[in-house]
Design goal:
binds iron/sulfur cluster, single chain, 19 helices, alpha/beta, 432 residues, 9% strand, eight-stranded parallel beta barrel
Length: 432
């Protein structure tokens, strides 16, 4: 049985217990969330991992890191290094988005090494293999696509992005809409080209039951992709985006009926004042299914700093109810991320997720900040470093300029914390 089927039967699985333990909640809370469809645990029965994560309502906001080669750059060693960095800086999941090199070998190596759930976008492999064998993506058959999906499921991939909502109807809506940046999703672009060229319906939509059968067999969590997500602020929350979301909402219910865990992907580029409405729309149309947002980026002009733009959007989205943040790296829109970009992206998204956890009342989030404040008051540098999201960086920055006293090099002898403690007669530990 899948985690969803177990939960609906009233059974608490080992994975549910482990997630409950990590979240500090009752296992029954996790079971109930999965049964209701508002929590997923990506857990392919073919892949042993040591860090399961629950994604959804009432849980800590999770962070995904995308890794993977491009046709021009990247190799297995680099991708494994990116995986190591993502895990070191505590991404909750990784996605292998490779489109260059031996895709199966790279994915299997990542699966072997990864202690956290792995996601993929199978159409990348189906499309690149079709180009190699037949010369053009449009020659891909439904069987080509489903064969790759089944192979990846059999290998142990925990969740898959499937762009089932790019259909003839949503493409027609897109054409009538008129956009600044049309389609920016790679999977969405592949499918749009295939549908228009062949004048046929998207196999992932038309043969959705076939997809559900594979997902159920291995307990792959479906991540219904937003192939028509806005690629710029001017295209945000337009009719094409909403048409796709309406379709995804219906597919969510069909997944639940088939015993398949499912979440929904969301935009993209969204102005600050539309983010909350986007989350509410998804939650309403998709009946509370977990929402996996890609950023969202709150401005189009932050090239080189899009991890900051994405973290701002991610924090707002997570406060509004988004459950899962796909990181954005400083190289977004500019090039393939390297391991340093992966680190920057994970840290930025973790700041966003944690900022939301604090106000969402997630257990332990507020207490973590309070411990840091106490350490600051105490001028306890060791503890401050330990409590930092990036201890190595905190240690390096603090240590680069030494001082004669215990205060840091910012104010030295004029340290406000030291001065006030001496005038108030407070001892550090008594101050908070
Ligand atoms: S020296 Fe200034 S910045 Fe450093 S701990 Fe004291 S008050 Fe804070």
């Amino acid at each position: 049985m899948t985690q969803l089927e177990l939960a609906k039967s009233g059974i608490i699985s080992l994975e549910m217990r482990l997630v409950a333990e990590a979240e500090g909640v009752d296992p029954e809370f996790i079971r109930n969330g999965i049964a209701e469809g508002n929590v997923v645990i990506p857990a392919n029965r073919k892949h042993q991992i040591s860090q399961y994560c629950g994604i959804g309502k009432g849980l800590r906001v999770k962070v995904n890191a995308n890794i993977g080669t491009s046709p021009d750059y990247g190799d297995m060693a680099t991708e494994l290094e990116k995986l190591r960095v993502a895990v070191e800086y505590k991404a909750d999941t990784v996605m292998d988005l490779s489109t260059g090199g031996d895709l199966t070998a790279i994915r299997c190596a990542i699966l072997k090494e990864s202690p956290i759930p792995l996601g993929t976008v199978p159409i990348y492999q189906a499309a690149t293999e079709t180009i190699d064998r037949k010369g053009a993506i449009v020659k891909m058959t439904a069987d080509d696509l489903f064969r790759v999906i089944e192979e990846q499921a059999e290998e142990g991939v925990e969740f898959m992005t499937v762009h089932c909502g790019v259909t003839q109807s949503s493409i027609a809506r897109l054409k009538r809409q008129g956009r600044v940046t049309d389609v920016v999703s790679r999977g969405g672009a592949f499918l749009l080209g295939w549908i228009i060229h062949n004048d046929q319906e998207n196999p992932l939509y038309e043969q959705y039951d076939r997809l559900l059968e594979i997902a159920r067999k291995f307990d792959v969590t479906l991540s219904l992709g937003d192939g028509l997500r806005p690629g710029c602020l001017a295209d945000a929350t337009d009719r094409a985006q909403v048409e796709e979301l309406l379709i995804l909402g219906e597919l969510v219910e069909r997944a639940w009926d088939a015993g398949v865990q499912v979440m929904v992907e969301g935009p993209g580029h969204v102005p600050l004042d539309q983010i909350t409405a986007n989350v509410q729309l998804q939650k309403s149309l998709c009946k509370g299914a977990p929402f996996y947002v890609l950023g969202p980026l709150v401005t189009d002009i932050a090239a080189g700093y899009d991890h900051i733009s994405g973290a701002i959007g991610g924090a707002i989205a997570a406060i509004a109810g988004a459950d899962f943040l796909c990181y954005v790296t400083p190289s977004e829109h500019l090039g393939l991320p390297d391991p340093d970009d992966v680190k920057e992206g994970v840290i930025a998204s973790r700041i966003a997720a944690h900022a939301a956890d604090i106000v969402n009342g997630v257990k332990g989030a507020w207490e973590w900040d309070k411990m840091m404040s106490q350490a600051r008051k105490n001028l306890d540098w060791e503890e401050q470093v330990r409590l930092s999201l990036d201890p190595l960086r905190a240690q390096r920055v603090h240590g680069q300029h030494t001082t004669t006293g215990v205060a840091c090099s910012m104010c030295g002898d004029y340290c406000a914390l030291e001065l006030v403690a001496s005038f108030l007669g407070t001892k550090p530990d008594e101050c908070l």
